[in-house]
């Protein structure tokens, strides 16, 4: 299935979970927030959150500055 991840189309297995996407993209521990189709997904649900074909996923990391 196809997902749009931070504006880039990527292919994944059907019924993949949000946590598995992070593993495949080697982003575990780096992503602080995730939104699917413009809706924030709480981090404690990533393990069970199943994505659907065509979902738009935004993965965010907060960077400090000053």
Q: What does this molecule look like?
A:
- The protein is built from one helix and five strands; from the N terminus they run ββαβββ.
- The mean pLDDT is 94.
- A hairpin with a 2-residue loop joins strand 1 (2-5) and strand 2 (8-11).
- It is globular, with a radius of gyration of 12 Å.
- It starts with a strand and ends in a 6-residue tail after the last strand.
- It is mainly beta and 66 residues long.
- It has a five-stranded mixed β-sheet with strand order 2-1-5-3-4, with no helix packed on it.
- The protein has one helix at residues 18-24, and strands spanning 2-5, 8-11, 33-36, 39-41, 56-60.
- Helices cover 11% and strands 30% of the residues.
- The longest helix has 7 residues, at 18-24.
Mean pLDDT comes to 94
> Helices and strands, in N-to-C order?
EEHEEE
In the sheet with the most strands, the strands line up as: 2-1-5-3-4
Distance, first to last CA: 40 Å
Overall geometric form: globular
Question: Low-confidence parts lasting 5 or more residues at pLDDT below 50?
Answer: none
- Report the count of strand segments: 5
- Characterize the main sheet: 5 strands, mixed
Rounded to an integer, what's the Rg over CA atoms? Answer: 12 Å
**How big a fraction of the residues is strand?**
25-35%
**Count of helical stretches:** 1
Structural class by helix and strand composition: mainly beta
Helix content: 10-25%
Secondary-structure blueprint of this entry?
Elements: E1 2-5, E2 8-11, H1 18-24, E3 33-36, E4 39-41, E5 56-60
Parallel strand pairs: 1-5
Antiparallel strand pairs: 1-2, 3-4, 3-5
